[in-house]
């Protein structure tokens, strides 16, 4: 069974979708198979937006019995990465989707899809509504992107509460993979101060060491729904997501080491 990671935050526009796409692409370069799940019912804003043809059917279609799980997986040409879209969610279907999230059907579907992949990254909708909570219930960890300008201690604390609540009610093993600072402008004093404040308030592991720069290339890549590595001029930003992939992997490894301490190597 692979690792399911949800990218979530209370706020929209903080880089969740960009992170799911670029971190997913970066992780996939190591092999082992990566699946990116567009879990935002406003799919017009999601990863699937420019891949409409390929991801016409998605999670919603399986939940409504219009497609099989196998039919909604879209592999990329290189075979290292695959995508699952949300599918068409008519306003009238939103209630069914939320109900499927609450009953566990949505989570069970994601688990089933994730079984064949080393990593599954879920791009969650903004907020901590039933859909996000349904994804958290089947995730091993969660990444919380925040922008430095709205990086308030309150935002982080309130999301940590959601994680604690999920642990108590549905998923005792859920971990915070880390808080990821996105759209960081190192030349902007306020951005630097905001990060320092967080570092001095929370335990050292809460923030990822890696920060994602504010970068036009990344914005363009994200608008075109392609990973930044595939867009000339966006290498700098792409590199930051590769660094994040390494950090995510090493954090997971350190967690396993802690779990296995005392157990011999052979
Ligand atoms: N590091 C970045 N630098 C510049 N623009 C970015 C960066 N990350 C995301 N964006 C842009 O910010 C907007 C919001 O990002 P998005 O990933 O869609 O956020 P969310 O999924 O949280 O709503 C998009 O227009 C995207 O292109
Ligand atoms: Mg999004």
Task: Give me the side-by-side strand order of the main sheet.
Answer: 3-4-2-5-1-6-7-8
Note the beta-strand portion: 15-25%
Secondary-structure element order, as H and E?
A: EHEHEEHHEHEHEHEHH
Heterogens: adenosine-5'-diphosphate, magnesium ion
Mean pLDDT comes to 89
Report on the structure:
This protein has an 8-stranded mixed β-sheet, sandwiched between helices. The protein is 41% helix and 17% strand. Strand 7, helix 7 and strand 8 form a beta-alpha-beta unit. It is built from 9 helices and 8 strands. The longest helix has 26 residues. The two termini are 22 Å apart. The protein has 266 residues and is α/β, with parallel strands linked by helices. It has one domain: Rossmann fold. It is globular and about 50 Å long. The site of adenosine-5'-diphosphate has 17 residues, from helix 1, strand 7 and helix 8.
